[in-house]
Design a protein that fits this description.
This protein is mainly α. Among the domains are: about 240-290 and about 300-335, no CATH class; about 360-395, no CATH class. Helix content is about 55%, strand content about 5%. The protein has helices spanning about 5-10, 15-20, 35-45, 85-90, 95-100, 105-120, 130-140, 145-160, 170-180, 185-200, 205-210, 220-235, 240-245, 245-255, 265-280, 300-310, 310-335, 345-350, 375-380, and strands spanning about 10, 50-55, 65-75, 370, 390-395. The strands form two sheets. Strands 1-3-2 form a three-stranded antiparallel sheet. It has a two-stranded antiparallel ribbon with strand order 4-5. The longest helix is centred in the last third of the chain and has 24 residues, at about 310-335.
Length: about 400
């Protein structure tokens, strides 16, 4: 039975709405059954999950007739979360609520963690590690409503605390990678958004070592999600940061993912390699032997750098990808370089040598008379350049 506090905090629908089946509500009877594939899309559109709670009147205990009360748990976006009414009271019951077995109360408490992260993040500093541990536990909850709310909580924690959560990140990261690889689309999408927040708000120098072990995970989906996180995180280092972190190490990582099983992983590797190539060209590696007679420093080209740091086949694959990608980008820029002001008008293009318009027909001779309709239908086109049926018949010229 759910706690009175949880029921009081949730919206109770009137009985008239409870008796009608509506496409805007997902009505589920206890014991709760996870949504099927047919109603997952509905939950995505409405961002709600509902529960039917039977209440038995004291005078009618034991009878089959029960009154159904529908409570609705909403997935509220971060920018629509209101501030806490009582910060001190909410803080005192926060850890107990996160450890509750009442899933509705747990969802409400997770939303309170989000409110703390947005409006009062200093209040959670002392208990942040405990909060993250309980959020990880909620991520493992088999109930989709709890899981998704915990994922949204993780995203807000990343934004609020950034590098401060790095020591507690490992169990949180593995759960988000797992959830982002699930078949449940609305859970998967929420986890992907949380991972994007992770790469945006946590320093890449701290995050990349945490991600690297998952690039070798047995699960190809987890490898792909980790590869996408690496591809998003590395550009935040900048050219100098990439050089300091180790461009040779990052190139080896990208070359490995280039031959991975899933296309998402390979695409992330291609994007990363292009970023690394641009960074390398800004700060290339000097050759060990410098020409003392030359004023210009001798450097390795990108091709020489790849060949010296990668196995032969891997280097060839990397160079093939980067050369094709760069050529495609340059070609695309060239095609789109003409502004609307400089772009020639269609008439001028037509008058150029691209298309030669047909010459105008010569004037008709004076000895032409208009035929009747029957004559027109009877005259077939036989190589005449002025039309399939002529309206004129030449006579007596």
């Amino acid at each position: 039975m759910m706690s009175e506090t949880a029921l009081r905090d949730l919206n109770l629908l009137p009985k008239s709405e409870r008796t009608n089946e509506s496409s805007s509500k997902d009505t589920l009877a206890k014991p709760y059954v996870e949504p099927t594939d047919q109603n997952v899309g509905e939950k995505q559109r409405k961002n709600t999950v509902s529960l039917v709670e039977p209440h038995v009147n004291g005078n009618e205990a034991g009878h089959s007739g029960t009154e159904l009360v529908v409570v609705e748990v909403e997935y509220i976006e971060s920018d629509k979360l209101d501030d806490l009414e009582n910060v001190d009271k909410s803080l005192k019951v926060l850890l107990d609520g996160l450890g509750s077995k009442d899933w509705v109360l747990l969802c409400e408490t997770l939303n309170n963690v989000r409110r703390f992260s947005i409006y009062h993040k200093e209040a959670l500093q002392d208990i942040l590690d405990n909060v993250i541990s309980l959020v990880v536990k909620a991520l493992k909850n088999p109930r989709s409503a709890v899981c998704k709310t915990a994922i949204m909580t993780s995203a807000d924690i990343f934004k609020a605390y950034g590098d401060k959560i790095i020591d507690s990140l490992d169990p949180l990261l593995v759960q988000l990678l797992l959830k982002s690889s699930q078949d449940k689309r609305f859970v998967c999408e929420a986890a992907e958004k949380a991972l994007i927040n992770l790469t945006v708000w946590v320093s890449p120098v701290l995050l990349l070592p945490k991600l690297q072990p998952y690039l070798k995970n047995r699960n190809p989906r987890i490898r792909a999600k980790a590869s996408m996180c690496v591809s998003r995180s590395v550009p935040r280092l900048g050219a100098e940061g990439i050089k300091d972190y180790g461009i040779d190490k990052l190139t080896q990582i990208a070359s490995t993912q280039l031959s991975d099983q899933l296309p998402e992983s390979r695409e992330a590797a291609r994007s990363l390699l292009l970023e690394l190539q641009i960074a390398y060209e800004k700060s290339p590696v000097l050759t060990p032997e410098q020409d003392t007679l030359s004023d210009q420093p001798q450097v390795y080209s990108w091709e020489q750098f790849c060949e010296s740091n990668l196995p032969k086949l891997s280097a060839q694959a990397v160079l093939r990808v980067t050369s094709i990608t760069r050529e495609g980008l340059v070609s695309g820029l060239d095609k789109g370089a003409v502004s609307d002001e400089k772009r020639p008008e269609p008439e001028k293009i037509f008058k150029s040598n691209l298309i030669t318009p047909p010459p105008p027909p010569p004037p008709l001779p004076a000895s032409i008379i208009i035929t009747t309709a029957m004559d027109e239908a009877a005259i077939a086109y036989k190589g005449d350049e002025f039309g399939p049926l002529r309206k004129y018949l030449l006579i007596g010229s």
